[in-house]
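Escalation from tier 1.

The customer reports that the assembly of two entities below gives different structure tokens on two consecutive runs. Tier 1 could not reproduce it. I'm attaching the input and our single run for tier 2 to review.
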Amino acid sequence: GAGVSQSPSNKVTEKGKDVELRCDPISGHTALYWYRQSLGQGLEFLIYFQGNSAPDKSGLPSDRFSAERTGGSVSTLTIQRTQQEDSAVYLCASSSPYRGQETQYFGPGTRLLVL
Amino acid sequence: AQKITQTQPGMFVQEKEAVTLDCTYDTSDPSYGLFWYKQPSSGEMIFLIYQGSYDQQNATEGRYSLNFQKARKSANLVISASQLGDSAMYFCAMRGLIDDKIIFGKGTRLHILP
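Tier 1 run:
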């Protein structure tokens, strides 16, 4: 597709269950980001992948959160043993590797609700 | 560590007036880029404008301009002739040359009044 896609668009889960959120970046974009946005709040940085470099995981809030990026393309964000405070919109973005073209293109987000 | 600060949680502006949204930043990176995004109630993130730290001129895109004052570490967004459709959340963001992840401020909610 032409843009960043995310799935599922909505996810309702029970406290304690694991969830996987998927992101398909724009083809050719080597940078991929995950952010979390709670209702009415700003974007909280979670993790950043750039090419084959080790990911910047400095924003992951706890060890229940992990992410991987297979083949430099699709990324999966996994939240284990979900808690109610994990409820938020999870946004994925990708950007070009070229200087001057770092504009991020965002996916529509996955709205996660933990009951 | 990099930091973005947006001090205006909300603003109300009369339609057709110009509006300035404040953004200050902090970084030790010698080179960096600054971004502004708009997020309407639909939730999508819309890129508005980009300013590189070594750009000689302030960036402009249609009704949007970025008032970049490097010495003050500020990158305010100016929207001229505001429209009702400008009502949205606005986020300032930055990326460094060394610390090259993109981080966002907490945003400013702009309300345009008819």
